[in-house]
Amino acid sequence: MGRSGTKARTQYRCTECEHVTAKWVGRCAECGTWGTVEQAAVLSSMGGRAHRAIAPSSAAVSISSIEPDQTRHYATGVSELDRVLGGGIVPGSVTLLAGEPGVGKSTLLLEVAHRWAETGRRALYVSGEESAGQIRMRAERTGCTHDEVYLVAESDLDAVLAHLEAVKPTLVIVDSVQTLSSADSDGVTGGVTQVRAITTALTSYAKTASKPAVAMVLVGHVTKDGAIAGPRSLEHLVDVVLHFEGDRSSSLRMVRGVKNRFGAADEVGCFMLQESGIECVADPSGLFMDQRPEPVSGTAVTVTLDGKRPLIGEIQALVGLSNVTSPRRTVSGLDQSRAAMTAAVLENRAGVRLGERDIYLSTVGGMRLTDPSSDLAVALAIASAFADLCLPSSAVVIGEVGLAGDLRRVTGIDRRLSEAARLGFTTALVPVGVKAAPSGMRVIEVATIGAALQELLSIATNPRRKPTVVTPAPRPELKVVDGRPKRPGTGDNG
C-alpha cells in the first residue's frame, strides 16, 4: 500500500459564524445569513498518521513563580478610557476599538497617543486610511503634537512590522485593521481571511515582542447593524473589545466595554467631542436633565444603570384630550411597548382614565432608557401631567411596574440611591425591600402603583398656577348704510 499523503478537498464556510458545510448554499443553516457562504480549500490526510511529540518552544512554569507585575495597568492619561479598561492599558495586550465612521475614534486615539508620549513613552500611530499630513492637521487642531508620537501611513503588514522593529514603541495604534493587507494571505483587503491574518500577526507580535512590551490598539469598522466587521473569531483573538458609540446630532460619545480580560467588561466612559478635541465627562448626569428654576408637572427623575455606572435621567410627559378616534402614543428615548404597558396599568389598576387622551413621552438630552427600572418614573410622569401636579425637583423615582400593578425591585438599588444622594436628591420613591438608605435621604417604599400615586399626592407641590387668559373686548359690529360700512355711534362721515 502506498505511503500516506495529503490532498486538497473543498468545503464551504460561513464568513459570519464560521459554520462549515460540504456543499454551497445560499443561506447559512447556522446563523441564517444570506450570501455569506464561501468556498475554502483545506488539506486532509490520506490514511492518517500518528502524531509525534516535538520539543516545546518554552518550558512549563509554576503559576506562583510568575510575577504579577507583568499584567500591570499603565494609565493612558484619559480618565474615562482608563475607567473602561480597568485602570489603563496592559503591556502585551491587544485592544479592539470599534465604531461608526465619523464618531471620533481617530480623535480619541490620537489623544491617547499624545498623553502616552507625555509620560516619556513612545507611541506609533499607523494609518491605512489617512496620510501623515492629514493626521498632523488633526493633531494641530486638537493640540496633540509631541516628539515621541511617530506617524506612518502604511497598508502593508510586512512594512508595518518593519516600522515596529525600527521605532521600538510601547504603544501601537492601527487605524484601521480592515485597511491592512498581507501578501501571504488570500482574499481581498478587508475580507474575512485578510482581517483574521492581520489580527493574528499583530497579536502574535504583541505577545512575543522582546522588551519593552508592546500594547496594540486596533481600530475596527462596523457593519450597518452596528456589529464589528469581520468574523466573530476576530473578537476572540484580542484581549479587550470596546465599542465607541454616539449620535451625530449630539456631541456626547460613550466607550462601552464588551470584553476585557484585565477588568470589568460592563463599564462605560463618557466623552464630549468638540472642535478642539475630545474631553472626558466625569459626571454626565447633568447632560440628561433639564435645568429649570421651578418644578413642572409631567416630569420625573430616575436613576438608570449603564453597565455599572449609575446615570440620572429625566422623563417628560404631556397628556391632552385627543381629537381623533385613536389617541396618539408618541415615545422618544424610551421603549414604546413598555410605555404603552405602563399607561395600560395606570388606567386599569390605578383608575387614571387615559383612554381618550394623547400621551407624549420623551427623555431629556437624547438619553436612551431601556432599563425596566424607569417604569415607575414613566407612570408618575404621566400621572403628574394628567393631574397637573409637580413632583419635587429633589425627588427620584425608581422601580419596575408589573401588569398586576405591583412594583418590583431592581438590581443595584443601593448604587442608584447613593448616586442620587451624591447629586443632592433628598427623597426617593422605590419598591419595598431597600435595606439601607443613604445618609440624608428619605426613602419612601411603596408596594403598588396605587400606593405610588397616593405618595405622589402627598409629596407633590401645589398645582402650578393656571395662566390667566385675557379675553379681548368684542369689536362693535359693522352696519351697511347707503352701501357703505358704518360703525354704530359714528356719523355719516365716520
From TrEMBL:
InterPro entries: AAA+_ATPase, DNA_repair_RadA, P-loop_NTPase, RecA_ATP-bd, Ribosomal_Su5_D2-typ_SF, Ribsml_uS5_D2-typ_fold_subgr, Rubredoxin_2
Keyword Amino-acid biosynthesis: no
Keyword Hydrolase attached: yes
Biological-process GO terms, alphabetical: recombinational repair
Top-rank taxon: Bacteria
Keywords from the named record: ATP-binding, DNA damage, DNA repair, DNA-binding, Hydrolase, Metal-binding, Nucleotide-binding, Stress response, Zinc, Zinc-finger
RecA family profile domain location: 70-222
SMART domains: AAA
Motif window: RadA KNRFG motif: 259-263
Chain positions recorded as ATP binding sites: G99, E100, P101, G102, V103, G104, K105, S106
Pfam families xrefs: AAA_25, ChlI, Zn_ribbon_LapB
Description of its domains: The middle region has homology to RecA with ATPase motifs including the RadA KNRFG motif, while the C-terminus is homologous to Lon protease.
Record family assignment: Belongs to the RecA family. RadA subfamily.
Name recorded for this polypeptide: DNA repair protein RadA
Organism the protein comes from: Mycolicibacterium confluentis
